[in-house]
Amino acid sequence: MSSTVFRTSTSEPLGGRVAILLLLFALAIFTFIHSGYSSFAVVISLPVFVLLLILTLKFRMFLFWTLVCVNFFLQMKSFPWPDGVPTSLYNEALSILLLSLAIIDVKETKFERVANFMLFALIIWCSFCTLEVLNNTWGLGINVGFWYTGARMMAFQLMYIFLVFTIYINTPQNLIKYLFLWGALSAFAVFWIWKQKYIGFTAIERGWLQGSRTHILQGGTLIRYFSIFSDASNAGINLASAAVAFIIFGITSKIKKYKYIFLGIGIACFWGMFPTGTRTAIFCFLAGFLAYTILSKSFKLATIIGLAGVALFFFLAFTHIGQSNQMIRRMRSAFNKDDASASVRTMNQAVMKKYLADAPFGLGIGTDVDNVPSNNKFRKLASLPPDSEYVYIWVHTGIIGLIVFLVTTAMMFLGASYIVMFRLRSSSLRGIGAGLCCAFISIQLGGYGNQVLMQFPNCLVFYGGLSIVYVLPFIEKEWLVLEDKKLAIQNEKKRLKLEKKLAKRV
Prior knowledge:
- By secondary structure, the protein is mostly helical.
- Helices cover 73% and strands 1% of the residues.
- Helix 7 packs parallel to helix 19.
C-alpha cells in the first residue's frame, strides 16, 4: 500500500516536469526555425545535438546517410533551414566530422583504398587552387577570406567528397544501400516536379518563381519546374544524368527486383527532365549513353543504344512530332542554331576572351563584382554572367586553370573507365561502374552548358559516384558472394512458383 502511494506521489511531479521540458523543447525548435540562432534556442536544443552525437559515434553510417540526404534538400525552397547559416556549411561540417571519425577509428578504416589515380588528380587541382590565393589580377591585394570561400566550393569540397565516399562505401551492402537511397531521393525529386506541375507550388516557391525571369517563358504560358533544386537547369541536368545511371544499372543487374526498381527510377528521371525545360539535359542524356557504348564492350548493346540515341536525336532535330507540347518545343529549340539565348552566350564569351588575354590565371578565386571598384579594368568581365561552370572556372582561374581542370577531370574519368573495362569480372558490378562513369560524363556536359557542376547535390552525387568506381575492385569478391546468395533465393522462388503453377494444372 505504502509503496503504491510512493510511486503515485512521485510520478505526478515527474510527469509535469517532462511535459514542461517537452513544451520548452517545442518552443526552442520553433524559435530555431523562424528566428535564427538565439542563445535560448541553442541551449534548449542541446538534447537533440547530444542524441545526434550518440547516434553518430555508435552508428557512423548514420552520419553518412544524413550527409547524402542533407545535400539533396539544401536547395529546396520550402525546407525550413535556419536563417544566417551558409548552405555549404552543413555539407562541409558533416564531411569533416565523418573524416574525423574515420581517423579516430584508424584501425578499422581502410585508408589504403584512398591512394588511387583520382586522389592524384584531385591533389593537382586542389594545389593549383591553393596557389590561386596569390592571384592579384585585380590589383586590390590578396584577400584570403574571399579566396577560401571560393576555393571551398571549387576544389576542397571535391577532396572531401572523394575521401568520404572512398572510406564509407566499403562493402557491397553499403553500395546497394547508397544506390537505393540515391534512387529514392531522385524519385522524390521527380515526384516534386509532378506535384508542382499538377497540384501547384508552395507559397515560398511561388514567390521565388515570380522573381525569376528564366522560369516563366512565352508570356507566362510556359513554366520551367525546378523541383527541390536551386533552379530548373540544375534539376533537368541532375535528372538526366541520374536517368543515365539508373537505366544502365537496370539493364545490367542480374537480380530482377533490382532491375525493375532501377529501370523504374531511370524512366521516371527521364520523364522528370522534360518539365524543367532544360535544353542541355537532352544532350547530357545522349552523351551518357554514347559513353556507355564504349564502356559496355558489347557490340550488340552498343548498336541498340546507338540506334535509340539516333532516333531520339532525329525526333527532336528533324521532325515536328509533338510540336503542340510546350516542353517538347522547348527541348527541340536546343537544336536551333539561331536561338537567341545561345547567341547572347557566344557574344559574352567573346568579350570575356578579350579581357582574359591579359589574365592567364583569371581574376582569382572568390572575387566578384561586388567587391571591385567601378573604375577597375576587369569590372566589366566580372559583371558578365558565366552561364556555364567551365566558363566560370575559366574566368576565375584563367586559361591555365581551365586546362588544369580539364586535364585532371579527364584523368579521373579515364582512371575509372579503365577499372570498369579491364579490372572488374562481374558483369553487374561493371554495370554499376559504367553507370557511375556515364553519369559523370553527363553532368560534365551539363557543366559545359550551365553553371551546375558544383551545385548541390550534383557535386556530391556525381564526384562521389566516380569515387565509388575506384573502390569496386576491393569489394568485388564480397559482391560475387552476395550476388550468388541473392540469385539462389531468386531462382528458388522461381522454382517454387513454377511448381505451384504446374500443380494447379494437374
